[in-house]
């Protein structure tokens, strides 16, 4: 406004963002209000399928929303800025985005991925990829030599998750990206758990970063969406072609919801992370808990590696009790934690992955991959830390008594 009064007309899109931190860039988004004659403070929602053209022989910047829409373009521009990408693309869900990434591999090609991956990804790669003539190898991606051995001359894509879901294993992203590149393959990280606030795969040398915007970007469990961010013009062309040809681009209103979510994403993620660390420390001390998996705990076997490639432990943890009945009772006695799949919402969530998000992985495969049925996954929301810890305390006490487990009296449950 000040600048406007002094006669210097400039849109926020022309402000150099290089020195601003992520939280600042989220509140002052790149490309905001482009072409809006009224300077609306909130993004303009272009809820339209078609755009009138200047004439039958002339095209406009936009003609049909499947091919492009200004609200989607604003979300994609902002995501590209956050991810340090050449270009980003918004799809109707994380899986729709991942399906497009999978289709970058031609028939006869090969994908190397992890053995502790998101359930939907596991289903896509196990059941859909083979039908299009693409082979998939699942390996322990924490073992770099195993990845090296799995890469063949046909490998076109190396597909990582770090931390992995739900066991929170850490993969050496930069080392594997280099390995993929020297084998002539592209590399991708499914960055849904960290989002660009905590981890930026393109800066670590990857070609594609994927984020399920259903999680932290929307942040309020009110939309499904997925973003692919690519490092090169060549990949951007291929992904844009598929977005338009297959029609899974995100609808204008869902883009608008994501744009609203982005404004508070950094704030939410910092608070969720603080809550998650508090819960991890509490669980680690509890005698009924066998093992806590959380990337932000110094006891995590790959804590140092994670700290090198990411800016935080995030807000997702899992733990083992060694007893399915105890895990189930605990989950059901929690009052503030909703029994829900997904994560990254304002409210805390609890799930038993083997019976929920990862149920699509056959039981034998889950067992072979070391995914125990008693694993409990917690997603921290933005509630008050003390309420979450007290809720865990009461639920754990009830669950222990339900299954006849005596918790030693005087156990220091509180930090
Ligand atoms: C949720 C999730 C997906 C899928 O995203 P949707 O938006 O649910 O389709 C993919 N990968 C990971 C790691 C996820 O957590």
Automatic annotation (TrEMBL):
Chain coiled-coil ranges: 375-402
Gene Ontology molecular-function annotations: cysteine-S-conjugate beta-lyase activity; pyridoxal phosphate binding
Q: Name one Pfam family in it.
A: Cys_Met_Meta_PP
GO annotations of cellular component type: cytoplasm
Which EC number applies? 4.4.1.13
Q: Which biological process, per GO, is one annotated for this protein?
A: transsulfuration
Q: Could you tell me the superkingdom of the organism this chain comes from?
A: Eukaryota
Does Transport show up as a keyword for this record?
no
Q: Which residues carry this modification: N6-(pyridoxal phosphate)lysine?
A: 215
Determine if Cytoplasm is one of this entry's keywords. no
Q: What InterPro entries would the database entry show?
A: Cys/Met-Metab_PyrdxlP-dep_enz (IPR000277), Cys_b_lyase_euk (IPR006238), Cys_met_metab_PP (IPR054542), PyrdxlP-dep_Trfase (IPR015424), PyrdxlP-dep_Trfase_major (IPR015421), PyrdxlP-dep_Trfase_small (IPR015422)
Requisite cofactors: pyridoxal 5'-phosphate
What are the UniProt keywords, alphabetically?
Answer: Amino-acid biosynthesis, Coiled coil, Lyase, Methionine biosynthesis, Pyridoxal phosphate
- Family, similarity comment: Belongs to the trans-sulfuration enzymes family.
> What PANTHER family does the record tag this protein with?
CYSTATHIONINE BETA-LYASE, TRANS-SULFURATION ENZYME FAMILY MEMBER
Q: Which NCBIfam families match?
A: cysta_beta_ly_E
The name of this protein is: cysteine-S-conjugate beta-lyase
What lineage does the source organism belong to? Eukaryota, Haptista, Haptophyta, Prymnesiophyceae, Prymnesiales
């Amino acid at each position: 406004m000040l600048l406007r009064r002094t006669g210097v007309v400039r849109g926020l899109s022309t402000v150099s963002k290089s020195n601003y931190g992520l939280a600042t860039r989220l509140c002052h988004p790149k490309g905001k209000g482009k072409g809006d004659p009224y300077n609306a403070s909130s993004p303009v929602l272009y809820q339209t399928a078609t755009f009138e053209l200047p004439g039958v022989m002339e095209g406009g910047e936009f003609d049909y929303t499947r091919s492009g829409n200004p609200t989607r373009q604003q979300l994609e521009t902002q995501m590209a800025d956050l991810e340090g990408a050449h270009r980003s693309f918004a799809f109707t869900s994380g899986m729709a985005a991942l399906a497009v990434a999978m289709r970058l591999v031609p028939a006869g090609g090969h994908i190397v991925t992890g053995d502790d991956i998101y359930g939907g990804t596991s289903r896509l790669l196990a059941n859909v990829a083979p039908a299009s003539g693409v082979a998939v190898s699942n390996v322990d991606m924490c073992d770099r030599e195993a990845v090296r051995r799995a890469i063949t001359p046909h490998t076109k894509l190396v597909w990582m998750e770090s931390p992995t879901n739900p066991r929170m294993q850490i993969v050496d992203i930069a080392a594997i990206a280099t390995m993929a590149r020297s084998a002539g393959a592209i590399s991708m990280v499914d960055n849904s758990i960290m989002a660009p606030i905590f981890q930026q795969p393109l800066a670590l040398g990857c070609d594609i970063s994927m984020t399920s915007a259903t999680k932290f970007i929307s942040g309020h469990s009110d939309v499904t969406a997925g973003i692919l961010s690519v490092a090169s013009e060549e990949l951007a062309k291929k992904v844009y072609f598929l977005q338009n040809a297959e029609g899974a681009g995100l609808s204008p209103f869902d883009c608008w919801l994501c744009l609203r979510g982005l404004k508070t994403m950094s704030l939410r993620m910092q608070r969720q992370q603080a809550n998650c660390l508090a819960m991890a420390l509490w669980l680690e001390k509890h005698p009924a808990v066998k093992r806590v998996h959380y990337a932000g705990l110094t006891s995590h076997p790959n804590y140092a590696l994670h700290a090198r490639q990411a800016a935080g432990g995030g807000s997702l943890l899992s733990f083992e009790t060694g007893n399915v009945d105890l895990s189930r009772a605990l989950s059901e006695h929690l009052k503030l934690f909703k029994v829900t799949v997904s994560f990254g919402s304002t409210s805390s969530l609890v799930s038993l992955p083997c019976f929920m998000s990862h149920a699509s992985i056959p039981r034998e495969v889950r067992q072979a991959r070391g995914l125990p049925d008693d694993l409990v996954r917690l997603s921290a929301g933005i509630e008050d830390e003390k309420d979450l810890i007290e809720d865990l305390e009461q639920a754990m006490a009830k669950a222990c008594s339900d299954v006849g487990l005596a918790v030693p009296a005087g156990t220091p449950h509180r930090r």
